[in-house]
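Quick one, tokens below:
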């Protein structure tokens, strides 16, 4: 117990000193945008390697069930057929779409044929998930570069990157075997393609492919369709996109996405008489009746708590996400309300505005879907918000900026604060301390 406290105090002191050192370097113009990006990437990689190496096998969220899905495909050369089973069988993820599992199956198949032990196969698959996160981070950087935000909008750019790199719950998910990781990469790819003033028909085809792959990875990723639809509609009504270009964009992207999803839907109908498997999936959860007020409280508390600070098989290891993230979100909401009243323009440039507002619509759809799940099955987890993670970071940072925290060194405070928080969470997670101040 005393050793745990000492480790946390030492971590806090060292982290605070490094944070102050970063501020000093930034003020003296000795640290550039590129240095900050590299620092975020390195810290993100190191913390994920620690989580992947130190978390016992099967002790990430739903990890054994996700592993079983991959193992089934590798062994049987076919997709599993979902049936209502007891959770102990670890087959309850079989209702999930297959792209994530198909992507990782070759790793399992090669390792299994080579006689690699199961524990080591787990580690190899965890490493693949860290690579998926790294690609997501790189694409996020490229998106902000394309938008020109590192020059004009550093606070939302670095605030979002800090969350993508250092959010503890995302560190845990992206260092384990979990299909919540890959949709974020696909949605970030869509974000990158939409962050452009002239999108040609070939790009719309790629966007449609990415939307289809997202839905074929995880159904909750379907909110990306709202992102694309809002972008197209905004372009037509606000940015005077021609009707011809609007129709072509809609038919190309929508046709490819729906075409891909229809393959999965046809298989589901064949085996289950249900296209999306929402009803069958919901049977996995007990759903005692509750009042609307109870659903709202469950939605707000569990979403905030698990989004900002949770890890483990059933997210049982938590810091006080409500105390940490809840305060940040409260200040951010106040900032946004003030900006609406003052009619402040959050972003300059037609494309930045179109891109951001479309992302806000995706986030709203994401939140409504989570609330519906809270009401129907009583299950709320922070990772359900991950499809909109890029925009959660942006909106949080912009809200804090509008709240009055708009200073030259604010980007460094985001990076330094999230770094300190992520390292403290990691130390606390693997020392299993019970220090009261965190709860």
């Amino acid at each position: 117990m005393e050793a745990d406290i000492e480790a946390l105090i030492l971590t806090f002191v060292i982290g605070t000193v490094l944070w102050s050192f970063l501020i000093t370097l930034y003020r003296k113009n000795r640290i550039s945008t590129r240095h900050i990006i590299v620092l975020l990437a390195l810290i993100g990689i190191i913390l994920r390697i620690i989580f992947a190496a130190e978390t016992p096998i099967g002790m990430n969220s739903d990890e054994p069930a996700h592993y079983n899905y991959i193992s089934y495909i590798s062994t049987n050369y076919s997709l599993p057929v979902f049936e209502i089973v007891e959770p102990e069988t670890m087959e309850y993820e079989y209702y999930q779409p297959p792209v994530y599992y198909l992507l990782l199956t070759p790793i399992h198949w090669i390792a299994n044929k080579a006689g690699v032990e199961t524990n080591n196969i787990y580690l190899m698959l965890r490493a693949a998930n860290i690579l998926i996160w790294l690609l997501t981070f790189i694409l996020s950087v490229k998106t902000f570069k394309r938008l020109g935000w590192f020059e004009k909008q550093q606070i939302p750019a670095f605030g979002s990157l800090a969350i993508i790199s250092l959010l503890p719950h995302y560190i845990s998910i992206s260092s384990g075997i979990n299909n919540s990781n890959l949709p974020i990469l696909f949605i970030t790819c869509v974000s990158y393609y939409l962050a452009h003033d002239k999108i040609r028909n070939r790009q719309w085809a790629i966007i449609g492919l990415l939307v289809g792959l997202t839905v074929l990875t995880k159904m909750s990723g379907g909110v990306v369709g709202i992102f694309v639809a809002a972008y197209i509609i905004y372009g037509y009504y606000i940015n005077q996109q021609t009707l011809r270009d609007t129709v072509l964009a809609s038919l190309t992207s929508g046709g490819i996405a729906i075409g891909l999803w229809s393959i999965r839907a046809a298989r589901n109908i064949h085996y289950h008489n249900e296209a999306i498997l929402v009803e069958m999936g919901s049977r996995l959860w007990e759903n005692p009746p509750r009042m609307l007020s109870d659903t709202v409280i469950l939605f707000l508390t569990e979403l905030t708590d698990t989004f900002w600070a949770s890890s483990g098989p059933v997210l049982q290891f938590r810091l006080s996400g409500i105390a940490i993230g809840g305060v940040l979100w409260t200040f951010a909401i106040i900032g946004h309300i003030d900006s609406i009243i003052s009619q402040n323009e959050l972003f300059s440039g037609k494309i930045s505005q179109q891109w951001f507002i479309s992302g806000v619509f995706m986030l709203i759809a994401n939140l409504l879907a989570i609330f519906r799940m809270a009401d129907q099955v009583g299950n709320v987890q922070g990772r359900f918000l991950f499809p909109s993670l890029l925009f959660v970071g942006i909106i949080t940072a912009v809200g804090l900026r509008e709240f009055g925290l708009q200073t030259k060194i604010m980007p460094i405070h985001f990076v330094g604060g999230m770094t300190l928080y992520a390292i403290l969470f990691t130390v606390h997670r693997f020392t299993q301390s019970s220090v009261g101040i965190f709860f």
